[in-house]
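New to this. Help decode both lines:
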Amino acid sequence: MGKILTFGLTTGVQIIIPIEPTHDQLLRKHLDTGDLHLSDAYNFKLHHLQELQWTKVIWSPDIPPSKSFLVWRMMHNKFTSMEDMWKLCDMNWSPQCKITITAALVNLINSLWYARNQARFHNNHIDCKSVITMIIANTSLSGNNSKKVSSNSIRDFTILKNFNVSTHHSTNTMIKEVLWQPPLINWLKCNIDGAAKGNHGLASCGGIFRNHVADMIYCFAEPLGTASAFQVELCGAMRAIEVAHNRNWKNIWL
């Protein structure tokens, strides 16, 4: 027995239209009949879809797919204004620094989503510092586990350092980290250096005085004519002591 479709009109008259029973079937979008034919598949394949550059950025073997998947879903919700942030990954970074920045963006979105769900569904409000710690920790895992190498750029080194990522050197590059420790309060610290071209070539020396908060108090740079490397270093130390004496600085760390 067929189904019956009824319409009630304002006049009180009811129209009954019999509908023939049919089997459920899959229908394809963008087709008039809903049936898929070889020609339809061929024409669909010929249609060139828009290439999205950000899709190549978020999918990486160094970033967990579960993190990238949330970002992929979010980007497909037509939040076009967010596409600009992926341009940060297209700058002239080293390979290791680039994957670290990408991981930071992906983990930023995931951490915010996690904090939002915790507050909404579990009434657990996560403070900002905990979210930042979570972002840095997850980004550090991706940056350290990556096999990509870093460059000798100070900019790249600073970014990797902020995310607790150890630099991966190439075979012909070596980066050595030098830590500068500030002096005590009411003390000044002077770092000096000298350079000579060859054993007895043109030479110069220089120095910089800084206080306990790393503010520069005074600096100098002077040519020395021709001298050896040892003489240049010695002249730099003597000049720093002379500057301190003339300015009546008693507490000096040279």
User: Anything to note?
Assistant: The two ends are 102 Å apart (CA to CA). Strands lie at 3-8, 14-19, 188-196, 201-210, 216-227, 252-253. The chain has seven helices and six strands.
